[in-house]
Every structure is written in structure tokens, then in C-alpha cells.
Amino acid sequence: MLEEKSKQPLRTNKAKNVILFMGDGMSLTTLTAARIYKGQLQNTSGESEHLSFEQFPFTGISKTYCVDNQVADSACSATAYLCGVKANKGTIGVTSKVKKGDCPSSVLEEHRVTSIMQWAQWAGKATGIVTTTRVTHSSPAGSYSQIAHREWESDVDMMKISKGTTNITQCEDIAKQLITREPGRNFKVIMGGGRDKLMKQGVNSTGIRSDEDLVISWKNDKRTRFSDKISKYVTTRDELAKTDMTQTDFVLGLFHRDHMDYRLKSNVETQPTLQEMTRNAIQLLQKEPNGYVLFVEGGLIDMAHHNTWARIALDETLELSKAVANAVAMTSEDDTLIVVTSDHAHTMTMAGYPKRNANILGLSGTMAMDNMTYTTLSYAIGPKKSFVNDSTSCHRVNVTDEDLKKIDYQYPSLVDQSRDPHGGDDVMVFARGPMSHLFTGIYEQNQIALGIAMAADISTDPPTNGSNIGNVVRLQFAGQTILTIITLISLMRILQYTS
């Protein structure tokens, strides 16, 4: 291993393609536990196992805080790693001048920012998104929307959530931005859940929109603007499998009314896996002569952690690992940059002194001072209390009496709250391919987007006079890219939008 590292070359050529994988809520503890879980599923030593992306040659650490919060949510963090700007909690695609829910402020051009998807399209590259959440959820929305409230996913949501507190007449909901505005309307690939946010209310519809059916709008737009291209709308795994991506130019895949189901609870006959969606997306995008930028989210890691369903969270992490492995197999390290990271952490911890090879989802094997054992994995905050109060005493839950083999067993938490909130820990970044050495060290989360732009040699500014040279500057000295410039740009953006 050390010998391989000593011979690891720095790939300083331009990245033709970029794939950004994001494990929502994939904390460092989640990675460690998932690695062990993977090995134990294969009856091997889990501690020495590895996830696919843990073998990438370069790793870094990202600082995830929002401008106004120590602990990030998926909205402000998406704005950071996709748009290169730190923002306020609950806002997407806008600067920190915009507070959550402030529609009038969010429509001011000087308060809006663009994403790596827009930068890629300006450079003539194809783009797409894949997620296991709603396609209008915070993380994927960071790639195309500019909104003051992360929950304004449909027109009905806007009316319900704003409740007259702000003038929303100037703002468009997230789903509408995806289908009708740049860069979303130009996406070659859109795959995930959230069908109801795009469909109109009706007798034979489960949609919730009151204004228009955006699925129909998507179909009409592709027929109008790309009459010579082939577009497909699919809703099941079978329809996806029967679509020849090498002969398809645009695909809209909405595989669930809401978030997609956890793999351990899903109907494998009707719902594609993250790996399958990713493979199909790459097959479609690989035809593009100028390359592509693809965003892939394993969003259900976070959802499971919110419920303290540790087993499901680890399993969804393995699903992301499979998707990454598939992407690695389908692409070349010579021209494709792959970055794997997370938006924020969670409060799950791995503690105690379990024996080597002990079930990661089981008991620690040691006794606490109350003469009861405890689970190796637990949460600081969550819906299942660690302690029980009755009329005579206050005592800890005896986990030996509980069924830890249940798929959705809720692991105990210290602080009683309806759901596990996020953790404020730094998160890992893994990279391979051209300019992947840019992603080493400890840095602000918004540097990820800027690093991707630099690696792909694309501008963060709109093209002027046919030129796509902007504020991403590549300086070469002795054959090595000087990283100082991107760090300075990152710091300048933080100062600009927090002053």
C-alpha cells in the first residue's frame, strides 16, 4: 500500500467528465460502521474491509457549517459544495444576504448564485442528477434552484409554508425551476423520487400541484426545443431497464411519489437501485463529445439516521459504495474526476469495547455501572430514549430484551427528540482522476465546487464574447497546479457573503 502511494502520479490534465457523489448525512462514524457491516455481511473481518471510494488516492476533510449555523442542514451545504458559496440554513442557491423564507430578497440578482451545473452548461458540457430522495429535495435542488426556503418544492408547498409571512408572488417553486429554468431545463438526466411535486392535482393523479403538470411541460419542452432528439419519461425499474440509453438524449425518471424507499424495504420489482440509476445516467452521458457533469446523491442515509435506524443507514451507505464502484468501472481515471463526500454528519457514535469481529449492530459485550450492557452504535439525540422513568425509578432501557435484528430497530439516544438532528462534525472527501489532488487537506465546503470547476477548466462566470474564461484561473509552475488561487477564491467568497 505504501509503495503504491509512493508511486502515485499527480494527474494535472483537464477533467473532461466529473461525477460528484454525495452521501447525505454520511459521517465518519457512518463510514467506519458501514465498512464493518459490509465485511460482516460477507462473513469476513469487517474492520479490515473498505468501501469502494475509500481506495481513492486522495482524501480531504470538509468544514460544513452554514453562515448562520454551526451545524449545517442539506440546503446551505448544497449551496456550498455545488455553488461555491456558503449560505444560511434552509436557503438554496442564494447568498447569506438572504434569510430563510425571504422571497423578495432571494429574487435580487446580486443575491443569487449559480451551480457547477450551470458552469458546465456554459462550457458546453452535458449535465444530470440522480438521487434516492425527491428530485426537488434540498441536495439535488442545490444543482439548479435559487430559493429562500428549502421546503418550497411545489406551488402548494409555497402557499402552505409561507402562510402570509412573506410575499411569494415573485418566487417560483423548486420543481418549476427544475423544469422551466436554466440549468434544470437542460439536464439530460433527472432520476429520483418526488413525482407528486411535479404532477398536477386531478381525478387520476396523485399530484399536489395546483398550477400545471410539470411532467407534461417537460415532455412538451423536449419536443419543442429538441425535436430531433429522443426523450423518455419512465416511472419503474422495468421501464428504465428497457430504455436504450445509447439511443436516448433526455430521460426523466420519477420512481416514487415521494422519497424512494430504503433498499431493505423496497420493492425490487418496481424501484431501481442507486447503482442502476447511476449506470444508466453514465451510459446516456458518455455519448457527449464535450463531456459531462453528473451529481449523484445517496439521500436515504440521512433519512435513516433521522429515525435512528442504524442498520438501514449503513445499508444505504453500501448502496452508495456500489454506485461509486460501478462509476469507477465505467469511466477512465485519465479523463474523469470522481469526488465522493457528504453534506453533514449525524449524531451516531460507535463506542464501548466490543471484541474484534463483534456484530457492529449488536451489543458491546461489556457492562455499564448499572449492570446492563449497551449497543455499540447509539445516538446523542433521537426519538428513542435511553432512559425510562416510571413511578419508582429512572433506569436505562435494557437493550438485551429487544430485537436488534429488526430492519428498522431504533437505536437508543441520550436526548429525547422527535428525530435525530444533524451533527456538526467535519466530513470526508475522496477523489480520483484529473486534478484530484486539489481535494486534499482541510478546507471550507464551498471549495469543493470551486475545485471541480478548476479541475474541469470551466468558468464560474457567464461566457462573454464567446469566451468561457472566468474567475477560475489555472496557474502552472514546474508542472504543478498552484492550489493557493482556489483557496483565496474560496475565502474571498466567504468574506463577500458574510460581511
From TrEMBL:
Molecular functions per Gene Ontology: alkaline phosphatase activity; metal ion binding
Stated name of the protein: Alkaline phosphatase
Reactions accelerated catalytically: a phosphate monoester + H2O = an alcohol + phosphate
Source organism of the structure: Acyrthosiphon pisum (Pea aphid)
Domain of life: Eukaryota
Localization (cell): Cell membrane
Cofactor(s), by name: Mg(2+); Zn(2+)
Co-factor binding details: Binds 1 Mg(2+) ion.
PANTHER family, per database record: ALKALINE PHOSPHATASE, ALKALINE PHOSPHATASE-RELATED
